[in-house]
Amino acid sequence: GGHAVDAVADRSQAWVDLDDSHQPEPWLASWMMHVDDGAYLSDLYMIGTHDTVSRIGGDFAQCHTWTVEKQLLSGVRYFDIRVKHIGDELRGHHGIIFMETWLPNQAMDFERF
């Protein structure tokens, strides 16, 4: 971890896939514990995803292959979760494409993490 934590601190992108495994590095799930409590949010390089739940839809709508849980484990802390209100449900959407997920599913992912 030391090299990787230093990479985050200096805003380097070298930490993203240190071993070329395309899997989250174990320390990424808790990277924020290395941030000083007095640090300003504006001083952090916050890791986030665009259209977080867009895991289907091919070239037209898919942005990710990782679940919200795996994104959390990889250090993501900013989530762009887009929903559409249909009936009594908040469904995950990318534009007009339904992502076959609902907001309560993502809420459970955050709670479990």
How would you describe the overall organization of this protein?
The chain has about 110 residues and is α+β, with helices and mostly antiparallel strands. The protein is about 25% helix and about 20% strand. It is built from 4 helices and 5 strands, in the order αβααββββα. It has helices at about 1-10, 60, 70-75, 105-110; strands spanning about 50, 80, 85, 90-95, 95-100. A 3-stranded antiparallel beta sheet has the order 3-4-5. The chain has a two-stranded parallel sheet with strand order 1-2. The longest helix is centred in the last third of the chain and has 10 residues, at about 105-110. The protein is globular. About 15% of the residues are buried. Mean pLDDT is about 85; it is low at about 10-15.
Helix and strand topology:
Blueprint: H1 2-9, E1 48-49, H2 58-61, H3 68-73, E2 78-79, E3 83-86, E4 89-94, E5 97-102, H4 103-112
Parallel strand pairs: 1-2
Antiparallel strand pairs: 3-4, 4-5
What's the gist of this structure?
This protein is α+β, with helices and mostly antiparallel strands and 113 residues long. It contains 4 helices and 5 strands; from the N terminus they run αβααββββα. The model is unreliable at 11-15 (pLDDT under 50).
Query: What gap, in angstroms, lies between the N and C termini?
Result: 20 Å
What class do helices, strands and sheet pairing give? alpha+beta
Q: Report the count of strand segments.
A: 5
Low-pLDDT residue intervals, each spanning 5 or more residues: 11-15
Using only C-alpha atoms, the radius of gyration works out to: 16 Å
Shape: globular
Order the strands across the largest sheet as they lie in space. 3-4-5
Largest sheet: 3 strands, antiparallel
Tally of helical segments = 4
Helix content percent band:
10-25%
Round the mean pLDDT to the nearest integer and report it: 83
Query: What string, H for helix and E for strand, traces the elements in order?
Result: HEHHEEEEH
- What fraction of residues sit in β-strands? 15-25%
